[in-house]
Task: structure prediction
Amino acid sequence: MPAFRKINNPTHYRLKRNQVPQLENLGSLITYKDNDQDHCLGSLIHFPEQGVFEPTFGRLDISPEQAKIHNELLDKALIEGLDNCQVGQCGDFYVKPTLHVSGGASLEEHYQITTFTGILVSTHCWKRGKIISFSRNARIYRGRVREDDDCVTFKRAK
Result:
């Protein structure tokens, strides 16, 4: 398993956007070749009656079950990469605000960090301005929240 890195960044692809490549490893972590290098598809989403879609290539001719298996394995790989990454390496995760009742009846906003499919990464989060940080396995990760975005690129800080 390579070090933690961005898996799905369209600027890294040499193929034209929406030009669907020959997919490999169906029923596992789905990959494709580009200039003899293996690349992993990003997170897949299934829309009933419309099919399975991937952000770079659009609609794919794969089953919802294959997409589910791919997403589960992709989440596992992302979390494994997160747990083994070096300082300065980064990856994309999702910030979900949650409300908790604190002393009395006041609501206090907390955050959870999850994968695209909702697998919990951390509940030990704090935010200062636009910077959100979280800890996992005695490591600290930081990212900058952009308005209207719930996906944040987190970089390992410590």
Q: What stands out?
A: The chain is about 15% helix and 40% strand. The chain has a mean pLDDT of 84. The chain has two domains: 10-84, 90-156. Residues 10-84 form one domain.
